[in-house]
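Changelog-linked ticket: DQA example.
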Amino acid sequence: MKRPLIVVLNGPNLNMLGMRQPEVYGRATLDDVEQICIQAAERLDVGIDFRQTNGEGELVSWVHECRNRAQGIVINPAAYGHTSIALLDALLAVELPVIEVHISNIHRREEFRHHTYCSRAAAGVICGLGVRGYALALQAMTDMILDENDR
Ligand code: DQA
């Protein structure tokens, strides 16, 4: 069987990781996060496609691209998680398993961060565990894909 492909999508301002509010998001850069994901994918024997954009429309288009190409989506929608019904609709449209990741614990922060639209499309949400949340999400997504293939 072909190796499953998991697409890892990152939303706005995550290109600023490392310099952006390190007391909230830590010192790891987006390149470090990509390396964490590449290493996790090698260990799990899955392929990944890791991307970041500041544009809502681009993020929506990238979700569409996953249909017929990927087996799962790991997404840190960043602020668009809290605001974008378009992103939710895209995630629902592609009919793929989705895991939502937030580096910070959004429930400990301002009230407007407590709700995310994306969560309605997500099998699970990982938040507050720092950048290691990405590796955990890839592990969980791989398990879910393998479980589905066993049926
Ligand atoms: C974030 C949390 C969001 O509330 C925020 O807008 C981000 C990053 C996180 O990873 O903790 O940009 O998604």
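Closing comment: Example verified and attached. Residues 132-150 form the longest helix (19 residues). The pocket of DQA is lined by residues 13, 76, 78-79, 102-104, 106, 113 (CB under 6 Å).
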